[in-house]
Amino acid sequence: MDLMSQTNFSNLVDEIVEGMDDLKASNITILDLRNIENSICSFFVIGEGNSNTQVKAISNSVEKRVRENLKDKPWHVEGLENAEWVLMDYVDTVVHIFQPETRKFYDLESLWGDAELHHFEAKK
């Protein structure tokens, strides 16, 4: 059973996770920030790619999937130049696609330690 069948997230979060999974992103985690006072958005969706090329491809996959299925696009994207950390801002949901060492360094899961964490089981 995968995460999407266990929880009730927004369609946007579902499409982001599927877009990441389509390109074999690893360690996909959703931080549910809705119950944190003064949080900057409702969700962080975090995933990893093992190279600059994979990080860029994952971000392209997310953007394409969301655009095709929800007719939405990110308000802002940054980090594509070096692709160690790409941030995609969909206003209420922020996507973070890291290379493993960069994710470990910034450790958003600990920084937002009060968030409810959900780990996505990748398709086999």
From TrEMBL:
It holds the Pfam family RsfS. It is found in: Cytoplasm. GO terms for biological process: cytosolic ribosome assembly; negative regulation of ribosome biogenesis; negative regulation of translation. One of its GO terms (cellular component) is cytoplasm. Keywords: Cytoplasm, Repressor, Translation regulation. GO terms for molecular function: ribosomal large subunit binding. It comes from the Bacteria. Belongs to the Iojap/RsfS family. Functions as a ribosomal silencing factor. Interacts with ribosomal protein uL14 (rplN), blocking formation of intersubunit bridge B8. Prevents association of the 30S and 50S ribosomal subunits and the formation of functional ribosomes, thus repressing translation. PANTHER family: IOJAP SUPERFAMILY ORTHOLOG, MITOCHONDRIAL ASSEMBLY OF RIBOSOMAL LARGE SUBUNIT PROTEIN 1. Interacts with ribosomal protein uL14 (rplN). This is Ribosomal silencing factor RsfS. The lineage of its organism: Bacteria, Pseudomonadati, Bacteroidota, Flavobacteriia, Flavobacteriales. The gene is rsfS.
